C-alpha cells in the first residue's frame, strides 16, 4: 500500500508560478531532484478540465516511473480518472466521509488552519493534514493569516496522523519548521519559482537532512 504521507519535500505544481515552464517540465525536474510527493494544483479558471486531464495523465506516468506519490488537488474525478495516489481538499471542499465512499482507499489530505479543524479532519477520516500557513504567503488566495510555528507545535504534540507544513516556507526558515516537528514540508514558490529547480531542491534537502540529524543527535 502507498505510504499515507512520505517524509521529505512535498512539491506542488501550479503553472502561473513556474516562470513560463510547463507543469510537465517542472514535474520531471522536481521528480529528478527527489521530491517524495507531488501535487497537481490548477484551477478551472486557469485551465480547461480537458487540459488538466492531459497534464495529469503525463504527470501520473512521470511520478509512477519514479515511485513518487501523486496527489491531485480538489478534483476527485480527475484523481480517479488518472489513478492518482491521492486527493487533497480544502476546508470548503467536499466533506470527507462521502468523499471516502467515492475514492475508497485513495489517500485523502485536508488543509487545516487550527487545532479544531485538525481534530475534525482526523475524526472524518483524513489520511494526512496540511498545517498552515506557517508564515505569510501570497500564493494561496483567501487563506487566513499565518498561524505560526505554535500551530505546528500543537499538531506535532496532539495529532496522530501525518501532517505536512505549508505556507511561506523558504530555505531560510526550513530549519525552524523541521525543528518544530515537520517531517514533510511543502514549498510552492520557493521551488517552482526558482531559476534552477534541481539546485534549489538539493539545497533544501541538505537543510532538511542537517536539521533532522541534529535533532536526532540531541535525543
Ligand atoms: N495552502 P508558498 S498555504 C496551497 O495554509 C497553500 O493551507 C496553504 O505556497 C495552507 O510555499 C499555501 O509559495 C500556499 O508560500 C503555499
From TrEMBL:
It is an enzyme of class 2 (transferase). 4-amino-2-methyl-5-(diphosphooxymethyl)pyrimidine binds at residues 39-43, 73, 111, 140. InterPro entries: Aldolase_TIM (IPR013785), ThiamineP_synth_sf (IPR036206), ThiamineP_synth_TenI (IPR022998), TMP_synthase (IPR034291). The keyword Transferase applies. Mg(2+) binds at residues 74, 93. Its EC number is 2.5.1.3. CDD domains: TMP_TenI. The keyword Chaperone does not apply. Keywords: Magnesium, Metal-binding, Thiamine biosynthesis, Transferase. It catalyses: 2-(2-carboxy-4-methylthiazol-5-yl)ethyl phosphate + 4-amino-2-methyl-5-(diphosphooxymethyl)pyrimidine + 2 H(+) = thiamine phosphate + CO2 + diphosphate; 2-[(2R,5Z)-2-carboxy-4-methylthiazol-5(2H)-ylidene]ethyl phosphate + 4-amino-2-methyl-5-(diphosphooxymethyl)pyrimidine + 2 H(+) = thiamine phosphate + CO2 + diphosphate; 4-methyl-5-(2-phosphooxyethyl)-thiazole + 4-amino-2-methyl-5-(diphosphooxymethyl)pyrimidine + H(+) = thiamine phosphate + diphosphate. It holds the Pfam family TMP-TENI. Its cofactor is Mg(2+). Residues 10-191 form the Thiamine phosphate synthase/TenI domain. One of its GO terms (biological process) is thiamine diphosphate biosynthetic process. 2-[(2R,5Z)-2-carboxy-4-methylthiazol-5(2H)-ylidene]ethyl phosphate binds at residues 137-139, 168, 188-189. NCBIfam families: thiE (TIGR00693). Belongs to the thiamine-phosphate synthase family. This is Thiamine-phosphate synthase. The gene is thiE.
Amino acid at each position: 500500500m502507498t505510504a499515507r504521507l512520505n517524509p521529505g519535500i512535498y512539491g506542488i505544481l501550479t503553472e502561473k508560478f513556474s516562470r513560463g515552464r510547463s507543469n510537465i517540465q517542472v514535474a520531471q525536474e522536481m521528480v529528478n531532484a527527489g521530491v517524495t510527493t507531488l501535487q497537481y494544483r490548477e484551477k478551472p479558471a486557469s485551465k480547461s478540465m480537458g487540459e488538466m486531464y492531459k497534464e495529469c495523465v503525463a504527470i501520473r506516468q512521470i511520478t509512477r516511473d519514479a515511485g513518487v506519490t501523486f496527489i491531485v488537488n480538489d478534483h476527485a474525478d480527475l484523481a480517479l480518472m488518472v489513478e492518482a495516489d491521492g486527493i487533497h481538499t480544502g476546508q470548503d471542499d467536499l466533506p470527507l466521509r462521502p468523499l471516502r465512499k467515492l475514492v475508497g482507499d485513495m489517500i485523502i489530505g485536508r488543509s487545516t488552519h487550527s487545532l479544531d479543524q485538525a481534530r475534525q479532519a482526523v475524526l472524518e477520516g483524513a489520511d494526512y493534514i496540511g498545517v498552515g500557513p506557517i508564515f505569510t504567503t501570497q500564493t494561496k488566495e483567501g487563506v487566513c493569516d499565518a498561524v505560526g510555528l505554535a500551530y505546528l507545535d500543537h499538531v506535532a504534540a496532539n495529532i496522530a496522523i501525518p501532517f505536512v507544513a505549508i505556507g511561506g516556507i523558504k530555505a531560510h526558515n526550513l530549519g525552524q519548521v523541521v525543528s518544530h516537528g515537520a517531517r514533510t514540508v511543502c514549498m510552492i514558490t520557493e521551488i517552482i519559482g526558482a531559476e534552477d529547480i534541481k539546485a534549489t531542491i538539493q539545497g533544501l534537502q541538505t537543510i532538511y537532512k542537517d536539521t533532522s540529524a541534529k535533532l536526532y543527535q540531541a535525543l
